[in-house]
Amino acid sequence: MSNNAKNIDLEQAAKLIHELERDLAKVQGGAGDVQRLRDEVETLRNLLNSPVQRHHWVSDSLHDIRSLLDETVDEAIYEGTTISRYAADIARILGL
Question: Is residue 9 within 8 Å of residue 55, measured between CB atoms?
Answer without folding.
Answer: no
